[in-house]
Amino acid sequence: WSSFAEVDEIARGDGNVIPASKTQVIQASEPGVVQEIAVKVGQVVRKNDLIIRLDNTLNTSSLGEQQAKARALQTRIARLKYEQSGSISGSFPCPQDIQAV
After folding, report:
1. Beta partners for 52?
2. Most buried of 55, 75, 76, 84 (most Cβ within 10 A)?
3. How many other CB atoms are there within 10 angstroms of residue 99's CB atom?
4. Contacts 24+ apart (CB under 8 A), 12-18
5. Backbone phi, then psi, for 24, in 5-degree steps?
6. Residues 5-62 pLDDT 10s
7. Which residue in 61, 24, 29, 69 sits closest to 44, CA to CA?
8. Which helix (H) or strand (E) holds 37?
């Protein structure tokens, strides 16, 4: 339209588009399965409001595995220290915290 009409003023500039709805994308720091959605579409939320609840079954399972690995490594360290000390009694004294498990 500027080819057949006069343009009084032209302005150029840089800027950002801000949506009127103030939509915010959220992401979980850890992958997981959504167990519950605690908000409704269009609901206003504030800082620290519960938005979704993730199923922690996988995390709980992973924690148990990591604890078992840690106990095994602690036992190995104790055994290696026992061997290094030169004791040859024939039996390895298992640490108390490992025996309790």
Report:
1. 37
2. 75
3. 9
4. none
5. -125, 125
6. 666 666 666 666 566 666 777 777 777 788 888 988 878 888 889 888 888 777 777 8
7. 24
8. strand 33-37
DSSP symbol at 47: T
Question: What b/e sequence results for 45-76 when a residue is b if at least 16 CB atoms lie within 10 Å of its CB, and e otherwise?
Answer: eeeeeeeeeeeeeeeeeeeeeeeeeeeeeebe
CA dihedral of residues 82, 87, 88, 91 (deg, nearest 10): -50
Please name the residue that has the structure tokens 């030169």: 86
Helices (H), 1-101: 57-84, 96-99
pTM score, whole prediction: 0.40
